[in-house]
């Protein structure tokens, strides 16, 4: 056994035996804290997901499945393939409802995009009593659509207030609720009147983010109110206008309550004012309701609504490009 170093031998650090460091003590969780499980986020999401699955996803899938059957209200029905969709093509009421729904979009959406913006610019100013006008413009939004519809029916009826005023002024009665086209226009007016306050609030939030310096710079350059509106306000709230256009397009295409209350369950004289959603209600309700055919109508309404939204968004992207 070698107990010493002979002359000439040197001891270097590299040759020294390595000493392992002592193991680090295990970290213990602080007192009062708990380790988060991987499934914890899903536990928080579970109630919402269950509600969506029960009241949105399942009814949608069930509607798609029923659209391929001849189911009725009291019978399950049998699989018929695309027979319901082929019947749609030859159904005159379907084309009438599609025409009225598209006309509703074309008549309502432009007004609901521009009028609430002008109204928001009006009530944005700090004037005495402006809070009262803001509340007054928003009141139709919180009112029930049934109450609003009945009020307008009483106003526009042949024996209503407006026709009484027209007769008092020496004019004849106007068939607001008996003429098919006037009835559709009257329903559009109710939709616009009820939606002004809702979209006004959206525009007010967008206008609050427009820098006042831009308006002041344009005013210094000699720009008038109209030019400042077109060059400053419209570009600043453009994304909000697209949002309003998308929301109002979907709401107008799926209109039901206003037309139903003013035209009645039959959709006006000869059903000329029936919309697609009203047609779904007419076909699919009652003891002999054709649930399968109504489901096919509902699927078509969903596809058309989705296509309408994509069309609005695509048009906005083209303008940005």
Automatic annotation (TrEMBL):
CDD domains: TM_PBP2 (cd06261). Keywords: Cell membrane, Membrane, Transmembrane, Transmembrane helix, Transport. It is found in: Cell membrane. The chain crosses the membrane at residues 42-61, 102-123, 135-155, 181-208, 229-253, 293-313. Signal peptide: none annotated. Gene3D superfamilies: MetI-like. Its main location: membrane. Residues 98-312 form the ABC transmembrane type-1 domain. It is a multi-pass membrane protein. PROSITE patterns: ABC_TM1. InterPro entries: ABC_transporter_permease (IPR051393), MetI-like (IPR000515), MetI-like_sf (IPR035906). Residues 12-36 are annotated as: Disordered. Belongs to the binding-protein-dependent transport system permease family. This is Sugar ABC transporter permease. It comes from Streptomyces nigrescens.
């Amino acid at each position: 056994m070698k107990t010493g170093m002979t002359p000439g031998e040197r001891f270097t650090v590299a040759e020294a035996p390595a000493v392992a460091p002592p193991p680090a003590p295990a970290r213990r969780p602080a007192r009062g804290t708990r380790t988060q499980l991987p499934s914890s986020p899903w536990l928080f999401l579970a109630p919402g997901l269950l509600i969506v699955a029960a009241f949105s996803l399942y009814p949608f899938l069930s509607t798609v499945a029923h659209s391929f059957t001849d189911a009725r209200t009291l019978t399950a029905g049998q699989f018929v393939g695309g027979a319901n969709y082929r019947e749609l093509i030859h159904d005159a009421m379907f084309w009438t409802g599609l025409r009225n729904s598209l006309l509703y979009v074309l008549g309502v959406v432009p007004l609901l995009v521009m009028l609430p913006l002008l109204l928001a610019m009006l009530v944005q100013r700090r004037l005495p009593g402006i809070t009262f006008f803001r509340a007054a413009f928003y009141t139709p939004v919180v009112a029930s659509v049934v109450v609003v519809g009945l009020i307008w029916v009483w106003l526009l009826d042949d024996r209503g207030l407006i026709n009484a005023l027209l007769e008092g002024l020496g004019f004849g009665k106007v068939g607001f609720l008996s003429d098919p086209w006037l009835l559709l226009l009257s329903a559009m007016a109710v939709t616009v009147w009820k939606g002004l306050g809702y979209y006004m609030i959206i525009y007010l939030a967008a206008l609050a983010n427009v820098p006042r310096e831009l308006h002041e710079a344009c005013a210094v350059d000699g720009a008038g109110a109209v030019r400042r509106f077109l060059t400053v306000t419209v570009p600043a709230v453009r994304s909000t206008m697209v949002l309003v256009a998308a929301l109002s397009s979907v709401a107008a295409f799926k209109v039901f309550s206003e037309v139903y209350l003013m035209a009645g369950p039959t959709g006006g004289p000869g059903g000329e004012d029936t919309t697609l959603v009203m047609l779904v209600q007419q076909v699919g309700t009652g003891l002999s309701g054709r649930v399968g055919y109504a489901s096919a109508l509902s699927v078509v309404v969903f596809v058309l609504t989705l296509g309408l939204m994509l069309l609005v968004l695509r048009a906005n992207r083209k303008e940005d490009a």
